[in-house]
Amino acid sequence: MKSGTIYPALHRLEAEGWLRSWSEDVDSSAVGRPPRRLYAITPTGLAAAEAALKPFREAPKPTAKVRFA
Questions:
Q1: Taking phi first (over 0 means left), then psi (-120 to 50 degrees means alpha), and beta for anything else, what does residue 39 get?
Q2: Do residues 18 and 48 touch, judged by C-beta distance below 8 A?
Q3: Which residues of 12-41 are buried (b: 16+ CB within 10 A; e: fewer)?
Q4: 39-53, pLDDT tens digit by residue?
Q5: Structure confidence by residue, pLDDT tens digits, 22-45
Q6: What angle do CA 35, 6, 46 make, to 5 degrees?
Q7: Would you say 6 and 17 are in contact if contact means Cβ atoms under 8 Å apart?
Q8: pLDDT averaged over the chain?
Q9: Of the spans 1-5, 27-31, 58-62, which averages the highest pLDDT?
Q10: Residue 65: its pLDDT value, please?
Q11: What is the pTM of this model?
Q12: Are 12 and 5 spatial neighbours (Cβ–Cβ below 8 Å)?
């Protein structure tokens, strides 16, 4: 994914309180790259994710009866 795709989504989730973020504490010259931005899900985000996934985790209900001869 391009950075223009994922970062706006991460920023929206952080604004909603579903994620928290912080900058990696590294010496950029020692590791040869800029510090990374790290993300973690918050309790609010976890509850929202569980609620959104609940319908998919439930056992499917049969839609037709099967007869055995």
A1: beta
A2: yes
A3: ebeeeebbeeeeeeeeeeeeeeeeeeeeee
A4: 999 999 999 999 999
A5: 999 988 889 899 889 999 999 999
A6: 90
A7: no
A8: 88
A9: 27-31
A10: 75
A11: 0.67
A12: no
The angle formed by the CA atoms of residues 55, 11 and 49, to the nearest 5 degrees, is 15
39, 20 Cβ separation under 8 angstroms = yes
In this structure, which amino acid lies at residue 38? Answer: L
DSSP result, 14-67: HHTTSEEEEE----HHHHTSPPPEEEEE-HHHHHHHHHHHHHHHSPPPP-S---
